[in-house]
Write a structure and sequence with these properties.
zinc, flat, three-stranded antiparallel β-sheet, single chain, Znf_RING, Herpes Virus-1, 12 strands, zinc-finger, alpha+beta, zinc ion binding, coiled coil
Length: 268
């Protein structure tokens, strides 16, 4: 929902008006495709049930929204307006840019009493007087326990009963804290066991890699020797050159032709 037009002293340009609520833009967002701007609080609900721009009907999604261009935003924020609580007595006029900051300190803004469960609503300037006499304000017990209690309940306050209630609450909090500590301890022990198991597994893996490496250094010379023996056998028996191996066979080249020989022939 935008800022009410009736609050403004300046003429409102059309491009500073939301096409959804027809008020002055508030937290403006624009579509990157068509550059039409709307209040953030208006356009987001619109996009939940529509897939087009409210102004030009161009296809859009929420991902097309962006902050208003800086020049356009400055033009909007310089519009002069009255305080939204001028009917209550505030006579301040200010640019839209300073609206939020003024609302935070305006003495005519209606606020709720801070003393729970008091629901009195008064102008901010009048609230300090109310809180001093509010029946729900907290005061210290003058009967001996010095507990903070609602002023309206002071007459029926019993120090012993109240302290017993406070002790019970503290005991419950202590029990809950102990349960939480026990849970944290159990989780920590599980984590320590997991880390220990992983460390052991890494050590076992390292030992396995070392064993395989040692075995590989022992096997490679034997394999190389066997391959050299096969070359000698092929050259001695067939006068051919060793070309390659397959599944249980040797591929040989002789006078430009290729032959497949099973390994079993080499053992004849």
């Amino acid at each position: 929902m935008g800022v009410l037009k009736v609050l403004f002293l300046d003429d409102i340009p059309d491009d500073c008006t939301c096409a959804v609520c027809h008020e002055v833009l508030e937290n403006p967002r624009e579509f990157s495709r068509c550059q039409h701007a709307f209040c953030e609080g208006c356009i987001l609900p619109w996009l939940e049930s529509h897939d087009s721009c409210p102004t030009c009907r161009a296809p859009v999604t929420s991902s097309d929204l962006r902050h208003l261009h800086r020049i356009w935003r400055e033009k909007l924020y310089q519009l002069l307006m009255r305080c939204e609580f001028h009917d209550a007595g505030c006579d301040v006029t200010l640019p839209l840019k300073k609206r939020d900051a003024h609302i935070e300190e305006c003495e005519f803004v209606t606020v709720v009493c801070p003393n729970k469960p008091c629901a009195v609503r008064l102008p901010r300037a009048e609230m300090p007087d109310h809180t001093e006499i509010c029946q729900h304000r907290l005061v210290s017990c003058n009967k001996g326990c010095e507990m903070e209690i609602s002023y309206g309940l002071m007459g029926e306050h019993n120090c012993i009963r109240a302290l017993r209630h406070e002790v019970n609450n503290l005991h419950k909090e202590q029990q809950n804290l102990l349960k939480a500590l026990k849970k944290d301890r159990d989780e920590r022990l599980k984590l320590e066991k997991f880390v220990h198991d992983q460390a052991c597994a890494m050590e076992d893996l390292a030992d396995l890699i070392e064993s395989l490496t040692t075995a590989l250094f022992l096997i490679v010379p034997i394999v190389v020797f066997e391959i050299e023996q096969w070359f000698d056998i092929v050259l001695d028996r067939f006068g051919a050159l060793f070309f390659g191996t397959g599944a249980g066979i040797l591929v040989l080249e002789w006078n430009g032709d290729f032959f497949k020989l099973p390994y079993s022939l080499l053992r004849l």
